[in-house]
Design goal:
Structural class: alpha+beta
Oligomer: single chain
Strand content: 15-25%
Order of helices and strands: HHHEEHEEEHHHHH
Largest sheet: 3 strands, antiparallel
Number of helices: 9
Strand order of the largest sheet: 3-4-5
Radius of gyration: 19 Å
Amino acid sequence: MTERNLTVTNPLTPKTFAEAKQFAEMICRSDFVPAAFKGNAGAVLAAIQFGAEVGLAPLAALQNIAVINGKPSIYGDAIPAICMTHRDFVSMKEDFDDSTMTATCTATRKGNAPFIGKFSKADAEAAGLWAKQGPWKQYPHRMLQMRARGFALRDAFPDALKGMISREEAEDYAPIKVVNPNPV
């Protein structure tokens, strides 16, 4: 049996600002980007840069970075993908207790005690999320899971996630009202 090199290189990853700008211009006109990036080369370039900072290739960044209230966030399923490639990642385990409606995520990082994130129906009610229309009504188990996951992995891998929260969590925050401190 022949040994194969499993290292994958991405020849389409821009290496200079000029290449990134040209790439963004082309990509923003394609059907391969979410609606928020369509026709917006600046947003494409920013998403690619944020993605690069957390280890996502350009197209993966466009599919997994969302801007909520002007702040970048990461889709909940991409967060473990980023953390699992970290050199200190050991394990991640998710559980759900149907009797208490509590999601638990335990993330283990080399050299540390496990980081445990929990989020329950009671937590969601206290935060005003449980009665919220949309995903909280349609997929309550999944939303509890995403919140517990986000807490555990952000605590365990702040260096990998660079302070970004999950899209699911970001969407639950009230829109930020910007006040101009220096009115004209």
